[in-house]
Amino acid sequence: MNAASLLLDGLPLPFSPGQTIMEAATVAGIFIPHLCHHPEFKPQGSCKLCTVKANGRYVSACTMPAKDGMEVENNSPDLNDKRRTLLQMLFVEGNHFCPSCEKSGNCLLQALAYELEMLTPHFTQFYPDRPVDASHPDVLLDFNRCVLCELCVRASRDVDRKNVFALSGRGIGKHLIVNAESGRLADTGFSLSDKAAHVCPVGVILEKRQGFKEPIGCRRYDLQPIGMQVGQRPGSEEGC
Amino acid sequence: MDRDPRWLPEMVVADECFDAISVAELLRPVVDLHRRDPGRLLQILREAQEILGYLPRPALTAIAEALDLPRARVEGVAGFYSFLHLAPVGRYRVLFSDNVTDRMLGSVELMDRLCNRLWVERGKLSEDGLLSVDTTSCTGMCDQGPALLVNGQVLTRLSAERIDRIGELIRAQVAMADWPREWFHVADNIRRRDVLLDARWSAGEAVRAAVVRGRERLLGEMKLSNLRGRGGAGFTTHTKWESARRAASDDAQGRCYVVCNADEGEPGTFKDRVLLASYADLVFDGMSVAGFAIGAAKGLLYLRGEYAWLLPALLENLARRRHNGLLGARVCGQPDWMFDIEVHLGAGAYVCGEETALLESLEGRRGVPRIRPPYPVQEGYQGRPTVVNNVETLCKAALIAVRGGAWFAGLGTKQSTGTKLLSIAGDVASPGVYEYPFGVSVDQVLGDCGAGNAQAVQVSGPSGTCLARHEFARRIAFEDVPTAGAFTVFGAHRDMFEVARNFAHFFAHESCGFCTPCRVGTTLVANCMDKIANGSGSQSDIGEIFRIHRLLHAASHCGLGQAACNPLFDTLSKFRPAYERRLRSLDFAPAFDLDQALSVARRMTGRDDPAAHFGLGAGVQRGEP
Fold this sequence. Notes:
The complex is a heterodimer. Chain A is an alpha+beta fold. Chain A has helices spanning 21-27, 77-93, 108-115, 151-159, 220-223, and strands at residues 5-8, 11-14, 51-54, 57-60, 71-73, 139-141, 165-168, 175-178, 205-207. Chain A has two domains: 5-75, Ubiquitin-like (UB roll), CATH 3.10.20; 84-226, Alpha-Beta Plaits. In chain A, 19% of the residues lie in helices and 14% in strands. In chain A, the strands form three sheets. In chain A, strands 2-1-5-3-4 form a five-stranded mixed β-sheet, with no helix packed on it. In chain B, helix 13 packs across helix 14, helix 20 packs antiparallel against helix 21 and helix 22 crosses helix 24 (566-574). Chain B folds into six domains: 8-78, no CATH class; 92-184, Glutaredoxin (3-Layer(aba) Sandwich); 191-409, 3-Layer(aba) Sandwich (Rossmann fold), CATH 3.40.50; 419-494, Ubiquitin-like (UB roll), CATH 3.10.20.600; 497-580, NADH-ubiquinone oxidoreductase 51kDa subunit, iron-sulphur binding domain (de novo design (two linked rop proteins)); 592-625, no CATH class. By secondary structure, chain B is α/β, with parallel strands linked by helices. Chains A and B meet through helix 2, strand 7 and strand 8 of A and helix 4, helix 5, helix 20, helix 21 and helix 22 of B.
């Protein structure tokens, strides 16, 4: 019996039952841009960067189950143009200043912007007012860079069983909150050893006293573009 | 943004007034009444706010502890709904309905009038904490606007005189119970009756008819009727019921639910309000019929927060039905059928009209649409098979239970059987609810409601279609112009750009914020429309709107985002001059106006000479070509 397979940009891509398009592509080493997806967590499909066209319909690759014979378009000018616009939206929604950010070179948002050749933010900046939370002894929260991927929410809830993070507000006012009446991270049960301390794809959750330990220029995506690092776990980066 | 620093000092002071122990004591009856059930979190938050005026931080902590939920989850839910307040609001909370029909009737001027009279700024708490004035999305009173809500009570047919009287009563701190009762009168305004609005049966007739037919024959009649959902999508009701029944019977416990979607939030529609107010027995009959068909023991009616004033009558009706054996352990004397109905209140979130967001809200969470599949008929309320039907659909199901599927299929058109309720408002002589067999032409409807000189009709609200004059021969039916019920008429004197701008702000306000394209895109589009309105628009802004429209259509998580740019796309295609006469004849104009930025300095220095203007700005004054 032949294994089930779909066509990804015209090439056959085998998959096992229950896999999503994203999972099947990752196994085969094919890059589908994504931000809120993480192989260790339940997919949620909110960033929409992994939007692909499956049998003529736009769907999220991270949540759409692969089907035998499905024709999927991924690396096309139309889709990459839409992804670039989504990245521009994320850049203007928050306050992202790469040159002064500790996460530069290890940041998924920045790496995707390079990969998809985003040259300008294009839209008018929103410049939201988002104070940082430096209350915790080991960790700094810089909400300015939050892209609302909910990875910390999922990690703290599903792995750490602490529910330190959640989302509040609605629409453009949606924002990350912590589980304390004071609103301060120091007053939650958060610890540096939590899974949630190490899943942020951008520079919101930062370990203190580690600033620029690894020189800019020698970081993960400084060495190789993200599109060539499919399937490698975050944290497995090797410096120069 | 959300952490508006202007609120902080007041919030901290006010929060200090509540100590943790006394708040927990105050809220104990509320949490106990709801059995400390996390699924009833939204109801608990609503009632806690009734007691405390708003939801101070210690209240969220106390509720989280009582329900054994993470505090952040409680705060996340409280922060999602427009009618829940994390900062103090006035003892009188005045919310002006901000639908385009209210605006056409002068609501903006009336709000300014009230604000000026009472020395309060829109969106801010008055210094004495007496009142706050703001806008809210359509309150479903388009046929008797302009309307507003005061502490959840609806006031219709506002006028300048009435606004002045309201201002006086608030200033004198007169209790709302002592305000003139006629101000709170809500008329049905039924203008054209057909089979549904003519149905005047006693409560339970449809349920008894269903029981007599038996489950199989009832489903057979439903299939024959070819009834399609009246909420807009037009999915076949029989297929939905059959799928849920099959999914439930595959399971050992067989639990399943009927949910009535009474979150009538689409701006311009109000026909469900009339059904709930004057045909509630038909609605509950329909829910019971659906429950009987799929074997459900429980029905849930999700009532939009704007219709909270309907709640007492609905609860009274349910009590009466229980007393009369139409709900409870042995419905209609059937030994093996137990069925009851619960009403849940929303709290100001249009997105909850999307069926999976509604289910999230019913379970006490943020109203964020779920990933589909699985569909509600497979995994719905509490993960169980669930039928979610619109209010009008359920009423039609009740009719079919009594009069049969063939009779129903004989009405309307082949693909759109039966009748449709239209909520007609705007520039017409007789606004109200009209019932027509499907297939009626837009022209005929316009003639009947007395729309003298219409240039456009927005069918099915902002997420529907905008028809221009040359399309008025088209027909209301799933095969031509589908609709959830809104039918808003714009006379020749109306500015279609302003209509679209109102809709753009509506979607930006109501986006749940889950997915990137809708969260950011709806705000970008609203800003773009404001830029054009301010006279700084250019052709590139029009191109920008089209580009965002395509992205939202393709990549949004749910129908809200996918439809959010529809009214702009329609009006741009059909009423382009309304946009273009606002544009500067430039390829690009920046949103930021340097000369405008100097106006504060000019005012402070009392200067207006050429040297006090910025370079080009001195020559190109606003409004000049």
